[in-house]
Each structure stands twice: as C-alpha cells, then as structure tokens.
Design a protein that fits this description.
Blueprint: H1 2-28, H2 36-54, H3 57-80, H4 86-108, E1 114-115, H5 138-142, H6 146-164, H7 166-176, H8 178-183, H9 188-212, E2 218-219, H10 226-236, H11 241-261, H12 268-272, H13 274-294
Helix pairs in contact: 1-6, 1-7, 1-9, 1-10, 1-11, 2-3, 2-4, 2-9, 2-10, 3-9, 6-7, 7-9, 10-11, 10-13, 11-13
Organism: Pseudooceanicola lipolyticus
Pfam families: BPD_transp_2 (PF02653)
Protein name: ABC transporter permease
Length: 295
C-alpha cells in the first residue's frame, strides 16, 4: 500500500509542481496569479484535442503550453495596462475558462461534462517496466513520464534562474523595488507581463500532464482545485523553489492517500476534503510564521 501511495503521490505532485513553478515566478514579479486553475483547465482541454488530432503527446503538450502562455500574457495586460485588480481578474478568468470550455464542448462535440475523443496519445513511461521490481520506489519509477522529469528539472534550475541570471534579477527587482528596474531603463510592466506569460506556459503544461498522464479524457472538474493548491504551495514555501517543491509533494501524497482511503469504507466527501484542509493548515502556519517574524 505504501508503494502504491508513493507512486500515485509522485505523479499527482507533477501538475501541482508545474503550476506552482509558474506561480512562484509570477509572484516574484509582483503578481499573485489566481488564474492558475483556469489556465490548467484550458491546457488540459487543448492537450486532449491536439493529442487526438495528431496522435502525438509532445505536440499536444507544446500546444497546451503555448495556448497557456498566450492566455497568460492576455491576462497580464488586464492588470498591467488596464489596472484591473489581480484577484478579481484571476477569478474572472477561472470562471470564463470553465464556461467557455463547457460551451465549446456542447456546441462542437455535443458533450456535457466529459469529453472522450479517439486516438488520444498518452504520456509514455520513461523507464522500462522491469524497474517496478525495485523495492519501495519501483512502482513510482515505472510510472515516471517525461513531464514529471521536466518538472523536477525545472525546479532544480529555478534557483539559478532567479538568483544568477539577468532576467531572474529583473523579476525579483520588479516585485520588490520596481524603481530599480526603471533606473536601468526597463519597464516593470513588461517584466510582469513576461512573468505572467511564463506562468501560463507552465500552467498549460500542468493541464496537459493531468489530461494525458493516464486516461486521456477531459472532464470539466479535471483540475479539482489543483491550481489553488499550487498557489498555497508557493505561499507555504515562502517563494523558495525547494520548499515549494516539498509542499507540492506533501499535497500530492495527501491526494494519493485520500484516493486510497476511499477504498476502506470511509466517507468519500470527508476524505476528499483532506488535501484542501491541509492547504488551509499550510496557509495558517505561513501566516503565523510571518506574524512571528514581525514581532
């Protein structure tokens, strides 16, 4: 049972981690991206459509990432150029994404709630099936897909990107002291727009991983709040990449555990609330730590 929970938890961590990477960079630039959930949903929808049409998981993933990036950039313009409140704009995009996808499904495919398309190419496993024989971590490694490796590689590179590259320094300066960015001849709004497009790119990939990791079916409730869990993860990790990754792994394992616990007869609704309860606990702990530092 432990091996199964670890394997499922590691895979369920991937979309949360990908979305959290984008959201972390976006917050470093001074924008709290509430719209991660909607962008993940759009990414999942695009991935299923393109995967069915082309038979390629790679083309589907790239398409989802690019669509997410374009939507992220358009979303940033409402904040940086039109002065919209970032929280309201983010919630609005989430509602718009869900409504637009539901409308397209009903008009174009005559489907409501769930979309099943033929010949959807799923994410391949990176390692051979024989790896499952390795004790404890075997099942986890056997289910390893390319996007999970991409997520791990991204979180490993992120500290260097933010701390040692020119663009990373621009991002952090924009979120903390935009006057510094202006003093070197840059427009902080352009940096925020680029960071929001970056977040959309990663949210699109997160949606693709959700849709193509196992079943290849799109459902309107596919994201199930994972965009908000990603938001809580980088808050809990205090915008630090490795702490954020640890928080994502915790939430992924809790998600896997609650799925497993439903098979032992406990109330499904109560168990399903476990990851979100942990999000609330994480946010409370984060706030208490902030208050303690200010005293």
């Amino acid at each position: 049972m432990i091996e199964q929970v670890l394997a499922a938890g590691f895979i369920l961590t991937t979309p949360i981690l990908l979305a959290a990477i984008g959201g972390l960079v976006n917050r470093q630039a001074g924008i709290v991206n509430i719209a991660l959930e909607g962008k993940m949903l759009i990414g999942a929808f695009v991935a299923v459509l393109v995967s069915s049409a082309t038979g390629s998981w790679l083309v589907a993933t790239v398409s989802a990432a690019l669509v997410g990036m374009v939507i992220g950039y358009a979303f940033s313009l409402s904040i940086t150029r039109l002065g919209a409140n970032m929280i309201i704009a983010g919630l609005g995009l989430n509602v718009l994404a869900a409504g637009a996808i539901g409308f397209i499904m009903s008009i174009a495919y005559g489907s409501s709630g769930t979309l099943r398309l033929p010949d959807v190419a799923l994410l391949p496993n990176v390692l051979p099936e024989s790896i499952v024989a390795v004790p404890l971590v075997g099942p986890m490694l056997a289910d390893l897909d390319p996007l999970t490796l991409f997520a791990v590689g991204s979180i490993a590179v992120l500290p260097f990107f933010l701390g040692a590259t020119r663009f990373g320094l621009w991002i952090r300066a924009t979120g903390n002291a935009s006057s510094v960015v202006r003093s070197v001849g840059l427009n902080p709004k352009l940096v925020q727009e680029a960071a929001t497009a970056f977040a959309g790119f990663f949210a699109g990939i997160a949606g693709a991983q959700l849709a193509l990791a196992s079943i290849g079916i799109f459902n309107e409730g596919l994201t199930a709040g994972r965009g908000f869990i990603a938001l809580a993860a980088f808050y809990f990790g205090r915008d630090r990449p490795w702490q954020t990754a640890a928080a994502c792994l915790l939430f992924g394992l809790l998600d896997a555990a609650q799925i497993r616990m439903q098979t032992v007869g406990l109330p499904p609704r109560l168990i399903g609330a476990l990851p979100y309860l942990m999000v609330l606990v994480a946010l409370v702990i984060t706030q208490l730590r902030s208050l303690k530092r200010t005293q």
